Amino acid sequence: MLDRRIVIGVCGGIAAYKAVELVSRLQQAGAVVDVILSEHAEEFVRPLTFSTVSHRPVYSDLWEPSGRAAELHIELAERAELLAIVPATANTIARLAHGMADNMLTAVALATKAPMLLAPAMHHHMYTHPATQANLALLRARGAVVVEPEVGRLASGEVGIGRLPETPVLLGAVSMVLGREGDLAGRRVVVTAGGTQEPIDPVRYVGNRSSGKMGYALAREARDRGAHVTLVSGPVALEVPFGVDVLRVETAAQMRDAVLAAVSQADVLVMSAAVADYRPAQVAAQKIKKEGAGAAREGVGDAFTLSLVRTPDILGELAALLDEPSGELRRRLVRVGFAAETSDLVTYARAKLAAKHLDLLVANDVSRADSGFGSDTNKVLLFYANGEMEDLPLLSKTEVAARIWDRIVPMLPKA
Questions:
Q1: Which one-letter DSSP state was computed for residue 203?
Q2: Count of CB atoms situated within 10 Å of the CB of 201
Q3: pLDDT at site 69
Q4: Are 225 and 183 in contact (CB under 8 A)?
Q5: Is the pTM value of this prediction over 0.85?
């Protein structure tokens, strides 16, 4: 976001107050944010509020007496890298669709070559009206990106579609649009994240402590560099990143099937998920009871024995496919693995790198409090197919994701 020039248009709807936090977050991230208010937006939020959080003047009146606005709307349009209209009302959407330029915001929209991002917010009947949907379809056909409103309680008190999404969703949409020409533009990547849950019975499962934070950070970073991202996610308590296709799975077998299907068209596979190595040999149809008729056959007294068998080795199967005579997948697919260890990190990492035929392996010691499951930071070592090793400092998982993609991009064949 550093030094990216963004114009935020704010329309006259009750959701206008949410745009204040968006502008503030963009400014804190280093963006240069200019705010344009429609003629009725000032009825909801005063210009001083936006100028305070953006640290820049706020624009609204195309017809002010000095005539300076006539120059300013062209200047704003030419230097903008993104025009985001948050919230976008039905009235402004209609004006934009039909090329009107009768206020500062619509004049800038008509004059700019920057991509347009729309976040509609209005009463659900207004949003679903055929006229509004036709106008949005027309704007999409011209290249606009539309952040769909959410279902929830509206200002009218009714529940329906029309709520402006929360700021993290809007920030994700902004990042995605700004990154469309990045170094992964046109690439298709598959990222796995989270742990798997191997059922014991309808209530219990064998699993691990993976939070999915690293995988989701990798997916967001790839999206922000222009990639089409498929995220194969185990059960996690994380919001789906805007603009990322998510395939939800629970077991290792389901993850295997999803990954093998997704990589057929992919340029990169990043296997950051903590896939269970074993699953129960048998899954009870009913909840296993501690005592009585429903007790497990293998339980003796207070003891309970659970028989486990190996789960599919996803990277191992891919390695076998890559050794097939055609070699097409091997030539095209860059493969990155992860190794979470508690001891002998370097030894185990090098062995996994070789056994799985990986281009890059990311290893971390999960026994560390600042690098384990669920932490917001990570301390990783990078192992390359040529035998080199790189020791990264302790970083946020967002920064680790950026460093990993920095290393992957040069490995990609020329487009």
A1: S
A2: 17
A3: 66
A4: yes
A5: yes
Instruction: List, in order of start, the domains of the chain with CATH numbers.
Output: 5-178 (3.40.50.1950), 188-411 (3.40.50.10300)
Name the phi and psi angles at 138, rounded to 5. -65, -45
Q: Which residue has the higher pLDDT, 95 or 372?
A: 95
Phi-psi category of 391—alpha, beta or left, where left has phi over 0 and alpha has psi -120 to 50?
A: beta
Q: Catalytic one among 208, 364, 378, 386?
A: 208
Residue 296: its pLDDT value, please?
Answer: 45
Please report where in the chains the tokens 């679903």 appear, as a residue.
128
Q: How far apart are the first and last CA of the chain?
A: 26
Active site annotation includes 378: no
Mean pLDDT of the chain: 91
* Residue 185 identity (one-letter amino acid): A
CA dist 195 and 236 (Å) reads: 8
Q: Are 78 and 112 in contact (CB under 8 A)?
A: yes
For 241, the 3-state DSSP assignment is coil
Q: Note whether 256 and 320 are within 8 A (CB).
A: no
For position 329, what pLDDT does the model report?
60
**Is the confidence at residue 251, as pLDDT, over 80?**
yes
Main-chain phi, psi angles of 81, to 5 degrees:
-95, -15
Beta strand extents in 263-373 (DSSP E only): 268-271, 278-280, 308-310, 334-341, 360-365
Mean pLDDT of 217-227: 97
- Tell me, what's the pLDDT at 67? 65
Residue 347, SS3 per DSSP? helix
> Rounded to whole angstroms, how far apart are CA atoms 95 and 83?
15
Query: Residue 255 CA to chain centroid, in angstroms?
Result: 19
273: tokens are 């998920």
Rg (CA), the chain: 26
**Cβ neighbours around 134 below 10 Å, total:** 12
Residues 6+ apart with CB under 8 A from 385: 353, 358, 359, 360
Looking at per-residue pLDDT, the higher value among 228 and 299 belongs to 228
Least confident of 114-123, 124-133, 203-212: 203-212
Residue 325 has pLDDT above 80, yes or no: no
Helix (H, G, I), strand (E, B) or coil at 365: strand
Counting every residue, how long is the chain? 415
